[in-house]
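User: I've been going back and forth on whether these two constructs are worth ordering. Before I decide, could you fold them both?

Assistant: Sure. I'll take them in the order you sent them. The first construct and its structure tokens:
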Amino acid sequence: MPGDLYNLNSNYGTEDELRECVAKMHAAGLGAVADIVINHRCAQFQDGNGVWNQYGGKMAWDQRAIVGNDPNFNGHGNHATGDIFAAAPNIDHQQEFVRNDIK
């Protein structure tokens, strides 16, 4: 799962390789679609208690960006509007700063 949504380098390849692949697809008459699940962004850093709930990159969020009823990640946000996903923090999309960052 992604940590920094604006960093396209990954174990699958570099941003340059991705751009080259998309260009080749377009040259062949194909389109590309990016499918991401913004609600489950993996934290990149631990807080003072060792909980993975600190984010870096362009969207450097803290516990305020995580729903408050997620028992795994000590979020300080609003209660989740859906089910809790234990493998990654549940992002609080009710927070105005979160909505502004992902526009």
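The second construct, handled the same way:
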Amino acid sequence: PLVSTRMALPMVSRVGGACALMRHGASALLLSSLRRFTPKRSFRTSAPCLGIVPFKLADIGEGITEVEVLQWFVNEGDTVEEFDKICEVQSDKATVEITSRFGGVVRKRHYNEGDMAYVGKALIELETPDDKAHDTPPPPPASTPSVPPQSPGSVPAESVAPHSGEKILAAPAVRAFAKAKGVSLKEVQGTGREGRILKEDVERLLAAPTKEIPPTPPAPPTPPAPPTPQAAPTYTPTTQDRVVPVRGLMRTMIKTMTQALSIPTFGLNDEIVVDELIALRSALKPLALERGVKLTFMPFLIKASSLAMKHHPVVNASLDADGNSLIFKASHNIGVAMDTPQGLTVPNIKNVQDRTLFDIAAELNRLQELGAAGKLGMEDLTGGTFTLSNIGIIGGTYAKPVIFPPEVCIGALGKFRTLPRYNAQGDLVPTQVMNVSWSGDHRVIDGASIARFNLRFKEYLEAPKAMLMEMR
């Protein structure tokens, strides 16, 4: 049926209003339900999660798989922070201080001093709340910083007080030196970094005047006691051998020298007149002291060998592992054999071809100080291309030096001696003479090559001013 417009309009209006009311009611109902079932937000606190983390010995490089633990800087129960020193270890190459990668409490030490620790195995167990410690790979330990020990005359403004109960920081060489001199490290005032005791500190204590003890009044004389018969001294022979494990630098020396036995060696000896060299060094020594450098004869010998290498580069070469190629080294990294408390070490001076005499002398001073303290780093002991051994500083005229693989030449320098020699006018005059002994890898260097190299080396030392013509 038809519905009039007048009736339809009110009906539509009522229907629309009802729909609007329904929509409003549904929204209110929905909001009420959400308020009823939505949980109230709250804040919670929880204690940090502690865990035991193994602190592993990282790969030191150079194919080293084990090290000797020299000393611990922490005990079980100690709290350490990031970059705190954990222990000091010695590899076949150098001495290294291990530092912590994160903070925590030391719960267990896996090795005692003198034990061999292995790369990839845990040194200590740390209790730490740091979750990142479980995921961070261990970085390689840094070598001992190349900070030269202070000279005997230089004492910091604020010296460290003698040790009274706290840990004593001293290198193994210093401990051995103090023990040999009968000095207790507890009585030594350390002047090194963080109170570390240096060799100079022990020497300073030995040189200090002892306190005078006031004389005691003489005791009243007592009657002499009757002589008692004394038993004859008995001789007790030593019946037990002493067994020392081969570790550290001695192990490296055994491996290297065993390898050197397979090298066919050619030897050459000569003598060099060093009168002019002595005069030149005497003239330059005060200038070096003004720069804080101790100038010995060794920098001249090192520089002369480098200049001679420019004309005869084969002595600065090496064979590859297969023996199929000869590698001519661009850098003259000249090693200097040193007698240290840890044994024979051969640190090298890098890029001698680009250094002045003062640069060489300063670097040699640094290496000698670190070698005496047992603190030579890995970078100081690797990468050598040629070696000089100054046996004359101890004593000796001639030697048969053993090649230091993979190098192909080594020289041994004898002591300076005053001998009668004829001068250019035919007069017999006292002359300062140094003997030199060369050993060359005869697979690479023939006799003529090493003889020509020796002649050039000799020319530079007998007329050292000629070196100035070729120095950069």
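Notes on the second construct follow. The first helix runs from residue 5 to 37. The chain is about 30% helix and 20% strand.
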